[in-house]
What does this fold into?
Amino acid sequence: MDSLITAAAQALATGDPLLALNRVALRDDAPALALRGVAMAQLGDLERAKATLKSAARAFGKKHPVAYARCVVAEAEIALVSRDLSAVPDMLSEAGSHLKRHGDIVNALYASMLEARHLLLVGRIDDAEHVLGDIDAGVLPPSLRAAYELVYSGIAMRRLRAVAARAALARAEEAARSAGISALIAEVQSAGLMLKKTAARLISEGTEQPLRLDDVERLIASDTLVVDACRYVIRHQAHVLPLTTRPVLFGLARAMAERWPGDASRESLLFAAFGARHADESHRARLRVEIARLRAELREFATVHATENGFAISARTAPRVVVLAPPADSPHAALLALLADGEAWPSSSLALALDTSPRSIQRALDKLRAAGQVRAVGRGRSRRWMAPPILGFPTALLLPGALPGR
It folds into this structure.
């Protein structure tokens, strides 16, 4: 490797893409193309970076498997940043295997780290944790160690482990400062702000209180019966009742929990469960059926009893019943939570991350665009969707992932 290529590589390693471009801007050989592609990616020109890295990979070809695989890993990272999530897994799997087989352990581990980031984005928390567990963080250079700790902190936030997330972010900042890369330091500090913002609302006895992530962690660990409207579960300590696929039952439980220790009127329950403003006898009959189903589901947690006005919920052993609600109630809160990261998402990746149909995502995006909450960039297959970051609104509780405690 000649001196210009070496100097460009060292500049990229220290986070100076402009210096790297100065070294290789006029060269079209494969190593120069690869370094130029990485530099463009660091500067944010992702489309040109992707095209340049593809050219570098073709120039290296199968005769240089390690260099070829490194280009593919760089392409995968750009796809991840561009939120082209469907393209990432196959690219990383093959490239990571090539790197490991040819002894490039550090870059093979980096490919695994990118795989964990991808799994985290699409909500496969258990799989992301398993992949991250196979990485020996002790052999990583400081810049990759910071990236490793960022993924670890993301997993901890999804698990509602604020203490573990804060410790991982402290290790990430230490590693980023050791690497001396200002952009990486800024990324770590930005991630740390999520722990300081409002993560949810506590609704109890007719009052609302904002909660940070560590407050949520303490609430869930307490002996309170929590009707969790962020994850659509009812929980009491280690016992969790998922009601994600039973929205009517969850709506009834939430309406009664919001009015605990009082009762919820039949009219409010009919509206919460069925959206009925003018109830007839069929609605009342259906309400009785759904209340009976809710009683059966809640038998380990609580009882539901009729009152003169409607129905009330009482915990069997918990001292109180509360509702854990999103920072702002919206039928599209999870979609907005994904878009709040400031990145431009294709609708197909949003559907993949939220495990729903592309058509449903498109309808939701059209409604949000009409309300001025999101905007589209580009046309046709290149269209991306963006939303302005929501101040004071972290996404950890609304992003797709495993249920807390599951």
